[in-house]
Write a structure and sequence with these properties.
globular, mainly alpha
C-alpha cells in the first residue's frame, strides 16, 4: 500500500455531516483505501500510518480517533453518501 495521499492533509476527525462535504470529495480515495484495508483485516495501526499519514507512536489516541472517524465516514459514503455524487 503506497501513500498516494502523502500530499493531502487529513484531519484528525472526519466530517459527520449528513451531506457530502468538500472534505469528502477530496478524500474519496482515502475512504476506498480504508474500506479495502478493513476488508483485508489490516491492523489499524498500519492503516492509519499508511493511508492517513498519522503515526500511532506519535499519539495513539489521536491516531485511533482519526482512523475510527474516517472509517466510519467511509462506511457512510459507501451506504448513502455516494448518492450525493450521483445528483446533478
Amino acid at each position: 500500500m503506497g501513500n498516494e495521499n502523502s500530499q493531502m492533509t487529513v484531519s484528525d476527525i472526519a466530517p459527520s455531516a449528513e451531506q457530502l462535504t468538500d472534505y469528502d470529495r477530496a478524500h474519496l480515495i482515502t475512504y476506498l483505501r480504508l474500506l479495502d484495508a478493513e476488508a483485508d483485516k489490516a491492523p489499524w495501526q498500519e492503516v492509519v500510518a499508511i493511508v492517513l499519514g498519522i503515526h500511532p507512536e506519535h499519539g495513539e489516541e489521536r491516531a485511533r480517533r482519526a482512523y475510527e472517524t474516517h472509517l466510519e465516514r467511509a462506511h457512510w459514503m459507501a451506504k448513502q453518501g455516494y448518492t450525493y455524487l450521483l445528483r446533478p
